[in-house]
Design goal:
flat; five-stranded mixed beta sheet; 17% helix; 164 residues; two-stranded antiparallel ribbon; alpha+beta
Length: 164
């Protein structure tokens, strides 16, 4: 049993299988591909099996792994076209954030770290920029914390003046 086989449980993505794990002292690269045993469904209408247009390899960042600060997940994004609704969609593992080029677990980890330290110190622990840390923290907080309830608001004070 080699050391990379022990890492496989850390990278289980439903509907995706691990193709390869490469690990050295500076970077870890995990390659996953779509599991062909799972039937694709249109993410828009959920009817039937959409036709696959193409597969493209993309990569995202993931949580650090011990002393290895940079962990990249290379995955096969599948572009499909639905014959029912006509939409074109890209299917990727649901744990990967579409807009951030990172896994959701990395974004949540960064947000938790932002509770305890300023964002300008975060790049010392995770190889991301300060602005990325702020953007991810804001995105996670927006997702988790509900907006303010302004329905019962009667008076609004602005610059020590009230508006009735």
């Amino acid at each position: 049993m080699n050391s990379t086989s022990l890492l496989r449980p850390l990278y289980t993505f439903p509907g995706w299988v691990i193709k390869d794990i490469n690990l050295n002292s500076e970077i870890a690269v995990v390659k996953i591909r779509k599991d062909n045993r799972y039937v694709l469904k249109c993410p828009v209408c959920s009817k039937g099996k959409p036709r696959e247009n193409r597969r493209v390899w993309q990569s995202v960042r993931d949580l650090p792994l011990g002393p290895v600060m940079t962990v990249m997940i290379h995955y096969e994004a599948v572009q499909v076209r639905c014959k029912y609704c006509g939409s074109i969609s890209t299917i990727l593992p649901r744990e990967i954030n579409r807009n951030a080029k990172a896994t959701n677990r990395l974004m949540h980890y960064v947000s938790k770290m932002c509770r305890y330290m300023p964002t300008n110190k975060l790049p010392e622990f995770i190889p991301i920029s300060e602005s990325t840390a702020r953007r991810w923290d804001k995105g996670v907080l927006t997702e988790k914390i509900p907006g303010p309830d302004l329905d019962s608001l009667r008076v609004l004070l602005v610059d020590e003046k009230s508006i009735w």
